[in-house]
Design brief:
Layout: E1 7-9, H1 10-15, H2 17-27, E2 31-35, E3 38-43, H3 46-71, H4 77-89
Amino acid sequence: MQIVEDIKPITYLKSRAADVLKHINETHRPMIITQNGEAKAVICDPKSYEDMRNAISILKLLSFAEEDIREGNLHSEEDVFKSVEELLNG
């Protein structure tokens, strides 16, 4: 990925908003918008944003699981399945 191609000044966004949206939706690459030479925003297509949010959620779950393992908060398979069966059977 050549990130340099995906960095544009805010004036580019203002004058070519439709082109920017078309580009990010076709390439699924985010675009970094700068103002006065500093990165100020990142624009991405909705699918990529959703995928990123889902990936972050999975990483958070893994982090919680690792913490539980470190702290010894573990349950056997049998206990887990028994609890699930009890929940399902009410």
